[in-house]
Model the fold of this input.
Amino acid sequence: MATAAFEDIAETFEFLDDWEDRYRHVIELGRAMPALDSAFKVPAFKVDGCASQVWIRPQIADRTFDFQGESDAMIVRGLIAILHALYAGLPVAQVGAVDAAAELGRLGLNDHLSAQRSNGLRAMVERIRQTAATA
Done:
């Protein structure tokens, strides 16, 4: 159950054979994301468990999930962009049903992220799931 935006990323990853190219693409995705206003870089939106500074600001309107996010690390900012593609626009009730590990596994990220980055990615997914569950 992936969004069209995530499917586009998955197709691009299939096309890119070299992991250096994939990393560059992840960074480009992060650069394309709008910046998070500094007013939202506060403890309430900070994601614990990430080696980098990460903020996720959920936005729920008409029972549809969306969020803004930012990190001080470019690769992590790209991971936030991938998560945005995976979750943004879903009905809040469907967010918990997304098998993020399986979807992200399709990109091969598990094999190419450091343990700290993988832990941070899991922490971001958990924050998204918790936010949707309490909405």
User: Anything to note?
Assistant: The first strand starts at residue 54 and ends at 61. The domain at 4-34+50-134 is CATH 3.90.1010.10 (Sufe protein. Chain: A).
